[in-house]
Amino acid sequence: MHPKVKIFITIFCYISAVAGLVTAVMDASQKPADTTSAVVAGVLGVAFLLGGLALTRKPRY
User: Fold this and answer.
1) CA gap 45, 18 in Å, rounded
2) Torsion, CA 19, CA 22, CA 28, CA 29, rounded to 10
3) Is residue 47 a contact partner of residue 14, using CB atoms and an 8 Å limit?
4) Residues 55, 61: Cα–Cα separation, whole Å
5) CA 49 → CA 11, 30, 37, 53, distances in Å?
């Protein structure tokens, strides 16, 4: 993969992770709480965070 594309995808994953986690907290803190939407946003946020971390790690040889 081209390094610039990898950097772009990594940044996209981190921004999506932050947006997903913030959305999850906002949905959970509403009165009444929108639990389903909060769980879905939280799971997507964590998935994007793990994707960003996987792209950031150095390869092991």
Assistant:
1) 7
2) -140
3) no
4) 16
5) 10, 24, 18, 6
Q: What is the reported pLDDT for 2?
A: 87
Q: What is the pLDDT of residues 9-23, one digit of tens each?
A: 999 999 999 999 999
With a CB cutoff of 8 Å and minimum separation 6, the contacts of 40 are none
Domain ranges in the chain are 18-26+33-60
Q: Is 32 exposed, middle or buried (0-12, 13-18, 19+ CB in 10 A)?
A: exposed
Report how far residue 1's alpha carbon sits from residue 59's, in angstroms, rounded to the nearest whole number: 13
Please state the pTM of the whole predicted model. 0.85
